[in-house]
Amino acid sequence: MVLLSDTRTNAGLDRISTYKKMYTFEVPGERVMVLMTSGNLSVTQTTMARLQDAIDDPDATEDTSILKAKSMLKVCQMVGAVLADVSAEITQKLERNSQATASASLIMAGQRRGGEMRLFMIYPEGNFIEATPDTPFLQIGEHKYGKPILDRVVTPKTTLSDAQKAVLLSMDSTLRSNLSVGMPLDLTVIKADACCVDEYRRIESGDEVFAEMSAAWSKALRDAFSDVVI
After folding, report:
1. Domains recognised in the chain with CATH numbers
2. Under 8 Å CB-to-CB from 74, ≥6 apart: which residues?
3. What's the CA angle centered on 117, arms 113 and 123, to 5 degrees?
4. DSSP E strands: which ranges in 66-206?
5. Over the chain (230 residues), what is each successive 10-residue block's mean pLDDT?
6. pTM recorded for the entire structure
7. CA–CA distance from 86 to each of 2, 126, 128 (Å)?
8. C-alpha distances in Å from residue 105, one per residue of 162, 185, 214
9. How far is residue 106's CA from residue 35's CA, in Å, rounded to a whole number?
């Protein structure tokens, strides 16, 4: 699996910040999980903190720690429950001051030893959906500008190298069209049955490889546009 996130958050045009939106949890050879976040920063950071606290608890069990759960489905249920509780708590506090509700969504990807690789999208209410052969990728946050590329390219047979190219070009399209998405980017690759992160890369603003890829894609689009006859 290939996972990619940006790091830009904003609460208005004059309140733009950089925060990590990708979190990795792993016991190499036993299990690996990657969580990506979108939405209210307070909700996502509190959710991640509570999940980490449960992991660090010396009395942690398979019902409390995502690193001890018996299946990826159980992990998803646990994460969804924490997210729903945090969203409800923060929303209740905001409503006391007549402010907007707080919500966030997550993508959870990973594998435990002996199980299948699984990919879930978790909604603010804690419910979720799973990727399937008919829908082999999931997105959260501002994604409409980059989704057409993935729709046209990604299938269950897409290689890891092509998947990396697809998600980076998808993000490049989003970066060009939406100011709420910004560098740096976090890219993580997980290989089947390795149960560990195979590759992690932070792509900073000005990255030469990413810039060359972006320029090549722009040229290819202009050339294809010129070749179309109506």
Report:
1. 2-141+184-202 (3.60.20)
2. 62
3. 120
4. 104-112, 118-122, 128-130, 185-190, 197-203
5. 94 77 97 97 97 98 97 98 96 80 94 97 97 97 93 96 98 93 97 97 97 97 95
6. 0.94
7. 28, 10, 16
8. 26, 18, 28
9. 7
